[in-house]
Amino acid sequence: MYAGRRWPRDLWLTALWRSRSGTRLKVILDGLPDVHIDNTTPIVGATPDSVIPTDRKHVRRLLAADPGIVLACGKQAERAITKWRGALVVMPHPTWRCLSNEALGQVRDQLLQAADGRRVRVRPTRGAILLEPIPAGGCP
């Protein structure tokens, strides 16, 4: 219905919380105060696997609101915030099949600790969950 254009935010959030991404984000964000959820673009693709290019102005507006801590989900989100210098947790996209409940818990733990300005990538691998520091200069 909204393919290729903006999805009204309230309807988008309702759909998000019912989706696989939303289910996994609830595990991470449940009970955390003042959480704002957004995408790298307000435009919606025609299919679930659509890739809409990042809207740089949209991302700059979101970061200008001084979010405190940014959780970047997926490679596109990580690339979109390369110049963000604040607290940052990067994780795989929530729909990634290999994302375990343990990894979701680790992302939540990192968010809870990110008030100290930490910048970390949570990278699940076979048999381990790596925590990789992200330099203040941005994401590599």
Low-confidence stretches: none
Summarize the amount of helix as a percent range.
25-40%
**Alpha carbon gyration radius:** 15 Å
Number of E strands: 4
Distance between the termini: 37 Å
What pattern of helices and strands is seen along the backbone? HHHEHEHEE
Give me the secondary-structure category.
alpha/beta
What gross morphology would you assign? Answer: globular
Neighbour order of strands in the largest sheet: 1-2-3-4
Characterize the largest beta sheet: strand count, sense, and whether it forms a barrel. 4 strands, mixed
Quaternary status of these chains? Answer: single chain
In total, how many domains does the architecture comprise? Answer: 1
Helices, by number, come to: 5
- What value does the average pLDDT take? 90
- Tell me the fraction of residues in β-strands, as a range: 15-25%
Describe the protein in words.
The structure is a single chain. By secondary structure, the protein is an alpha/beta fold. The protein has one domain (9-133). 34% of the residues lie in helices and 16% in strands. It has a four-stranded mixed sheet. Helix 5 (101-113) links the parallel strand 2 and strand 3. The N and C termini lie far apart (37 Å). The mean pLDDT is 90.
Fold blueprint:
Layout: H1 9-18, H2 20-29, H3 56-64, E1 69-73, H4 75-80, E2 87-91, H5 101-113, E3 119-125, E4 128-133
Parallel strand pairs: 1-2, 2-3
Antiparallel strand pairs: 3-4
Short description, anyone?
By secondary structure, the protein is of the alpha/beta class. The chain contains five helices and four strands, in the order αααβαβαββ.
